[in-house]
Structures are given as structure tokens and as C-alpha cells.
Amino acid sequence: MKKQLFSEFLLVIYALIMGATSIILKQVTQELNIYTFMANRFLCAFMICVILFGPRSRGKFSSNLVKHAAITGIVTYAAHFYCTVGISVTPVGIAGFLTSLQTIVVPIIAFLVLKQHLETRTVLCVIGAFIGICLISIGNLEYSYGVWLCILSSILAGIQILLIEFYVKRGDDGTALMIIELGTMAACAFLVALYTNSVKLPNNGFGWFSVLWTGIVSTAVATFIQNYAQKYTTSVRTGLIFSTIPVFTLIGSRIFFHESFSLRAWIGALILLVSVICVELRNNKKIKTE
Predict the structure, then answer these.
(1) CA of 239: how far to CAs of 2, 100, 107, 171, 202, in Å?
(2) pLDDT by residue (tens digit) across 188-210?
(3) What range does the domain containing 76 cover?
(4) HSE of 99 in the Cβ direction (CA atoms, 13 Å)?
(5) Rounded to an integer, what distance in angstroms lies between the CA atom of residue 165 and that of residue 238?
(6) What is the mean pLDDT of residues 65-94?
(7) This prediction's pTM
(8) pLDDT band per the 50, 70, 90 thresholds, residue 46
(9) How many folded domains does the chain comprise?
(10) Please, are residues 189 and 36 in contact by the beta-carbon 8 Å criterion?
């Protein structure tokens, strides 16, 4: 129980980190090439993890773990890529609410792939989330491209949550999994940057700060937190905690970018957040009963 509480406290720290990172991503995409930024970010994260955690993971890199981490790394890179591009063309406050959809994606995938029963309340929450997205998007068609990219990012993030829980609870070492996962993400980002002729270093102070913050704090540290914490808690409880990320993002968007939205968009965001929290509270209650 103590390990579970400590793990969930770490996940709250994770949510705070990711909320702050959304603000930084919005700013960095206005000043740096996205492909250059992502290549530097994930390479930095991979190098830090190898230095800090490589020695303690020696001898734990089985062929199955490498395969599992590579799959997770590709999915995670795609989630980060679409999230970054989506934030670049969407108000960061709206993007924050849309990326919280990952918590609804988890039970949907469990229903479609794992053949788990989908309760009526969950179905209603999914419908509520869809209505919320429509209210956010209608009247903001100039953001429709970014909206769908953020939704795609949420779907991939939901898959990643399930993959990590599945692998670490099958016995894969979380730290070793993280190192190969980040190595895969760095390789994907570097290949994309090479293809787009964007392999270069940041050329200003903010660029270096963004790379170091997102590489060390919101990638290396955050990935370690998630891989460690999900060994002692469930994907459902993880999703519930992650649903607080848009709250931190919204606060930051108001402070730093002075963003304002229509009443319809605010109602849509509220419906979306309530739907996410309701589905997680229901699943959390079910787990306690079992």
C-alpha cells in the first residue's frame, strides 16, 4: 500500500511536469524547427538515462525486453510527435484538454482488443467526451487540424499506458525498458530530422533550455516515474491522475499566453474533463470492490 501511495504521488509530479511542458512546447514550436527540437530532446534524454541508469540495468536486457521496449518507443515517439505538432497549431489550453483523452482511450482499447465489458456509464462518458470535442472544435475550424492531431496523440498515449503496464507486470525491468524505449525514440527522431535535413543544434539560450528541460525532466525523469509507478498501480488509476494534466496546462496558458476561449469551448472542455474523471472514478471504484 505504501509503495502504491508513493507511486501515485510520483504520478502527480509527472502530471505537473507535463502540464508545464505543454507551455514550453507551445513556445518552442514558435521559435525552433520541430524536427530539430525533437531529435535533440530525445537524444539528450537517452544519454542522460544511459549515464544514470545504465549500470543498474546491466544484464537485464533480454531479447524480449528489447522487442517490447522498441514497440513502446515507436508508439511513444509517435504520440510525442503528434502532440508537439498539434500544440504548435492549436491554443495550448485546448490542446491540454484534448490530450487528456488518453484516459478514455484505455477502457475503449480494453473493450475492442482485450474483449473486456464496457459498462453503460463508460459508454455515456465516451459520448460526453465526443460532444465536448465537437463543442471545442465548432467555431474554431482554424484549429481543426491541430485538434485531430491532439486526439491521435491521445490514442497513442493510451496505447502506451497499456503497453507499459502489460510489460512491466510480465516481469520486464522498468529501468531497462525505459533505456531501450528512449533509445528507440531518439533513433526515430534522428531519422526524421535527417530525412528533413534538420539535424542541427539549438542556436539560442531558450532553445538549449527547452531541449534540456524536455529531454531531462519531461522525458527522462517523467518516463522513469511512469515506468516505476505503473509497477505498483493500475493503468486506470494512472489515467485518473493524468486527467489533471490539462488543469495545469490551462493555468499556464492563461498566465503565459493570455488565451481566452468562447463560452461554447469552455463548456466543451468542462464536459470533456468531467467525462474523463467520471470514467476513471468508476473504474477505480470497481477495482477497489474486486
Answers:
(1) 20, 9, 10, 22, 34
(2) 999 999 999 888 888 888 888 98
(3) 2-289
(4) 33
(5) 10
(6) 89
(7) 0.75
(8) very high
(9) 1
(10) no
